[in-house]
Amino acid sequence: MKAVIIDDEKDAIKSLSIIINEYCEGVELIGTANSALSGIKLINELSPDLVLLDVEMPGGTGFDLLEGTANRDFLVIFTTAYEHYSIRAI
Length: 90
Description:
This protein is α/β, with parallel strands linked by helices and 90 residues long. The chain has helices at residues 10-23, 36-46, 62-67, 86-89; strands at 2-6, 28-33, 50-53, 56-57, 60-61, 75-78.
């Protein structure tokens, strides 16, 4: 399974990368992005199977990213620190 991380926090990307590499056998991290816009470009270029997605980012939210992605044939795991997004994420 090919995965990408989209998050504006460098430490979050680093932590998620470590978790994937250490504990997620069969998951290959193929790229990262730090905004909704760069995330859309990354998804379109790499066609991941899984997107680990932050909600609050500069220039748009993770929800904006999903709305701006033409081909949504990937799984999403939201990685936000804000619990008030949980219902919308579900």
